[in-house]
């Protein structure tokens, strides 16, 4: 059921973008802010205490490593993980670098999902607006429908695949804390960038502030 939820969330975003096109992006910025705040709050309230309970001195190092990995991934994705896409209608070949960077990000973020945390909720909330914006970007870039469906379908499998790898490769069980710390670094970078970018020209927006506050409150009480 968890695998199916993770997969269908991306497909749902694709179908919303396909049906509504430009209208789909009208309120995505608020939802994106909510998703970023919720993802950040779940990381701080649940994942950070979990990894630091292990008394592993390497945890801070892996958190920083995850942050650096995400910075490198964004060099190729141009910020797609937090809803920032650049339309290039002159290039209609399959966006391989974008796909690889997004796939690596999606793969690793599925690894720390367990029954003991609410990360799956945070990832589902995070992936829906990203999938909508990604689908709109692919349409606007002039890619064929076959390429778009192929891209979205492959991308949708990445987070379930990360969860599957973690659950079914026993050797990884010994490195659960380090992997979780790595993902914390990735999430900290992505979620904070989403929150910074959600404030246009760094001006105060009451609606977005209330949205962010609601997301943090919900994450706290889960």
Write structural notes for this entry.
This protein has one domain (2-86, 106-221). 73% of the residues lie in helices and 0% in strands. The protein has 8 helices and no strands. The longest helix is centred in the N-terminal third of the chain and has 25 residues, at 28-52. The mean pLDDT is 87.
Features:
about 220 residues; mainly alpha
Query: What is the percent of helical residues?
Result: over 70%
Q: How many independent structural domains? A: 1
The structural class is mainly alpha
User: How many angstroms does the end-to-end distance come to?
Assistant: 20 Å
Shape: globular
Question: Which regions are unreliable across 5 or more consecutive residues at pLDDT < 50?
Answer: none
Strand content: under 5%
Order of helices and strands: HHHHHHHH
Count of β-strands = 0
| Rg from alpha-carbon coordinates | 17 Å
Q: What kind of sheet is the major sheet? A: none
Estimate the mean pLDDT confidence: 87
Number of helices: 8
Topology:
Layout: H1 2-20, H2 28-52, H3 59-77, H4 96-109, H5 119-140, H6 145-168, H7 176-197, H8 206-221
Summarize the structure.
The protein is mainly α.
């Amino acid at each position: 059921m968890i695998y199916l939820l993770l997969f269908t969330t991306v497909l749902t975003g694709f179908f919303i973008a396909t049906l509504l096109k430009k209208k789909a992006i009208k309120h995505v910025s608020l939802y994106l802010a909510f998703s970023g705040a919720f993802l950040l709050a779940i990381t701080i309230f649940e994942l950070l205490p979990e990894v630091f309970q292990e008394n592993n001195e390497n945890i801070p190092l892996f958190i920083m490593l995850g942050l650096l990995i995400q910075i490198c991934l964004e060099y190729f994705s141009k910020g797609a993980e937090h809803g920032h896409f650049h339309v290039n209608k002159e290039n209609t070949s399959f966006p391989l670098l974008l796909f690889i960077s997004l796939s690596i990000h999606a793969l690793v973020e599925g690894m720390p999902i367990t029954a003991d945390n609410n990360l799956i909720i945070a990832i589902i909330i995070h992936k829906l607006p990203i999938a909508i914006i990604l689908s709109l970007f692919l349409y606007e870039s002039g890619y064929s429908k076959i390429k778009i469906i192929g891209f979205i379908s492959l991308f949708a499998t990445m987070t379930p695949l990360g969860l599957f790898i973690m659950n079914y490769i026993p050797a990884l069980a010994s490195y659960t804390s380090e992997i979780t710390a790595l993902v914390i670094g990735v999430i900290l970078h992505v979620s904070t960038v989403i929150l910074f970018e959600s404030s246009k020209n760094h001006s105060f927006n009451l609606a977005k502030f209330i949205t962010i506050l609601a997301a943090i409150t919900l994450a706290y009480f889960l």
